[in-house]
């Protein structure tokens, strides 16, 4: 998504330049990761639009009711994170890319289960923090060196949900040295 949004990409470049200066080789430190606030917001917004796990499956441990319908114990429930993250009541203009949705002042008051790219509750992904740190390191190292341009429009990318949500035919991205 960053390759579709040059102004957001420029803000990431500015943030990375403020952290690293012209040094394209210095390894990323834990302090650097804490300073990558805008990059983190962009990654969270990308995960909102395209969660790696497109659905979560759970079996009801006790009966519960939603909208007048009772689900008995043992009922298997499947939740689409892809659809949940597009709830207009929580994320206005849900198909648009707006990283500022994840600025602390804008996320304040949002239900903690409105955004669950790593699931939630006692069975959430134990590697969530590691995964986000790893994403930040990889993307930061790429964007310290390159400008990206996505060559396929979002509406042209067919998605498949297997173990993870992924593009059916890959993605075409142009890399230009910075």
UniProtKB/TrEMBL annotation:
InterPro entries, per database record: Cyt_P450 (IPR001128), Cyt_P450_CS (IPR017972), Cyt_P450_E_grp-IV (IPR002403), Cyt_P450_sf (IPR036396), Cytochrome_P450_Monoox (IPR050196)
Compartments (UniProt record): Endoplasmic reticulum membrane
UniProt keywords, alphabetically: Endoplasmic reticulum, Heme, Iron, Membrane, Metal-binding, Monooxygenase, Oxidoreductase
Single GO molecular function: oxidoreductase activity, acting on paired donors, with incorporation or reduction of molecular oxygen
SUPFAM superfamilies associated with the record: Cytochrome P450 (SSF48264)
Cofactor(s) required, per the database record: heme
The organism's place on the tree of life at top rank: Eukaryota
Pfam families, sorted: p450
One GO CC term, this protein: endoplasmic reticulum membrane
Binding locations of heme: 125
Functional note: May be involved in the metabolism of insect hormones and in the breakdown of synthetic insecticides.
Family according to the record: Belongs to the cytochrome P450 family.
Name of the molecule in the record: Putative cytochrome
Species name: Amblyomma sculptum (Tick)
